Amino acid sequence: MLVKNHFEGMTTVVTSRPAAAKVSDLSRKILHYFYFDAYTSACIRGTDSPLEEVSPAYYRLGLDEKVTATGKLRAAADELFIRLPRLTALVRSVRNQLRGGSVEQEVLLQALYSAQQLLTLEDHGAEDELMDQIPLAVATTSCHAIEKVREPLRQYLSPKDFEIAANYRLTRMTLLRLCGRLHQCVPSTDTALPLPPFAHIASELRRHGGNALKSCENSSKLRPRQRMGVNVQTSIALWGALSDFPELFAEGESQVAQLRQWLLVNASTALDGYRPGLLSPQDMDEAADVFVGGPLIGVYVDVYQLHG
Predict the structure, then answer these.
(1) pLDDT, tens digit, for every residue of 84-103?
(2) Buried b (16+ CB within 10 A) or exposed e, 63-95
(3) 71, 113 contact by CB (below 8 A)
(4) Which of 151, 163, 195, 266 has the lowest tally of Cβ within 10 angstroms?
């Protein structure tokens, strides 16, 4: 509740500032702390982010800033955290209307336009530059499916670098999955969609998801609240990617089942302080669907509304 009160107070301050007011580095750093929670809260409530009214100067790179790989990825992830809830709500509207028999073209076009704009928020050069700086290590796990996917591990030089990379991967994976849902809502005869094809979506999910699996042990270095958020949300996103493309990270039913069980246990462990016990596959399915426009139901929604 204290975090929520701080967030609401900070949001009031930054949204009421004149657009021309200079943004300090301290203000950016303080607001950056809340992007992840603001994104999660908005998605599970089915609303736009309250930070949409914040000046872009708070999260975009300034012309006078020293441009680094982590700075570029942080700027992209922060803007995605702010913009994704609106796209998620639009996709939910499209999916609901489709179940009713017809989709309003205006809503569909808004969703497609939003997705097209958000797809530009990526930086392969910054990704490669950061990955080149990360030492490799050997995976240690009894799960063959996990070991196969995670070799070699990535040991980040600092918790900050890992958190930025994890947030960037999470937002990109979620955006790609939302694009996949939009594909399913549009007639297959429409070849002029401003969306990447399914093959590209699968390829990018495999790349981002593989890097997430190779570096997940770095979460142990984060502060407790950040560690919980990164572990749960990344596990949910990976579970959803596997639901969309079953053999994305593993081959054969046995390895896929092992990987899904590992993700389920990882998410359950992270949530243990808020919701003791093992999550069920249905819990994971519902949580993964919430973030791509599915029904606002499930254990994760209940837990976050109670403790978020």
Answers:
(1) 999 999 999 999 999 888 88
(2) eeeeeebbebbbbbbbbbbbbbbbbbbbbbbbb
(3) no
(4) 151
